[in-house]
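Hey Z.,

So I finally got round to the magnesium ion thing we talked about over coffee. Here's the setup:
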Amino acid sequence: MVTTLILKADDRGIKAACDLLAEGACVALPTETVYGLAADATNGKAVAGIYAAKGRPAFNPLIVHLPDAESVLGIAEMGPQARLLAARFWPGALTMVLPLRADAGIASLVTAGLPTIGVRVPAHPVARRLLRAFGRPLAAPSANPSGRISPTSAAHVADPDTGLGGRIAAVLDGGDCPVGVGSTIIGWSDDGRPALLRHGGIPAEDIETLLGTTLLRPESDQTAPSSPGQLSSHYAPRVALRLNADRAGPCETLIGFGPVAAPLSLSERGDLAEAAARLFDILHRADALGLPIAVAPVPDHGLGAAINDRLRRAAAPRG
Ligand code: TXA
Ligand code: MG
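And the result:
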C-alpha cells in the first residue's frame, strides 16, 4: 500500500509528476476523454507497473500519448489519411493505430509485441503540459482497476475502494474530463482501408466525411480487420510453445524464469515486473531462432497472471 498523492496541476505539481515518472512510477493524468494511468513508454518496468496497479489479467496494447503530431512521426509511420486525420482531430479524442518505427525506442510491453502502436495527442491542457515537461512518450490506459468504469475525475481515480487509491504514486488533478468517454480508435487493414476499432469521443461519421470513405466496422463487417495478419490484435510466435518446462527438450529453445536458468530468461531473479517488461522481447527473440519454445513455470499471482495468460494464448493450437 502506498499513499496516493493528489497533485495540483500547477508548476510544482507538474514537476512532482515528472520526477515520479522519471523514477519509473505510475501517475494518473487528466485527459479530455478520461483519466489515464501514465508511465514512461520507453521503460518496460514502469509500463509493467501500470498492469500491476490495474490488476489487469491480460496484456492489451496501450495507447501512447504525445504532445504533438511531429513527435508522433518519431515513433510511427503516418500515411496520407493519418496525416489528414491528425491535422483535423489532433489534439483531441482520436487514437490512431499506426505502423511502429523500428527505432521508436518504445518498450515492447506497450504494444504487446505488435508491429503497430496506438497513438494520441490529447487536448487537455494539463496532459499537454505534462507531456512537454516530461519530454518522453507516456503510455496510458484508462486509470481504473481492471473491470471497473473509466474515471472522469481525480476523486474517482484516488478512491481506495473503486479506484486506484493506495496502488499508485499520484494523481494530477485537472478537474472533470469534458468528453467523458474514451477516444475513437482508427486503424488500417493490410490493404490500406481505414477501420473503426472503437467508438469514442469523435463521431465515426465525422471521420468518414473527412476521409470521403466509409470505415470498415469489425462489429458488422466480416471483412473488416480484426484477426491476426490483417490488423493484429495479438502477437503470437510462429513456432510451437510448451509451458511449465523445467528443462529444454532436444531442439527446443528454453525460456527461463527464476530457478529455471537459461540464456534467455524472463527474470533470473524471479521478479515478475522484470519478466513482464521482457516478455515480448524474449518471445520475439526465441521465435526468431525457429525452434519450438519451452517456457519455465511462472507463478500465477500478481503480474504472473497476465504473463501466464499471454503464454497460454501463445501455446494454444492455431488453425
Ligand atoms: O481516451 C482514451 O483512449 C483513454 C485516454 C487515457 O487516452 N485511454 C484508453 O485506453 O481508453 P484503454 O487502454 O482503456 O484502451 C485502449 C484500447 C484497447 O482496447 C487496445 O486494445 C487498443 O486501444 N489498442 C492500443 N494499441 C493498439 C494496437 N497497436 N493495435 C490494436 N489495438 C490497440
Ligand atoms: Mg479502459
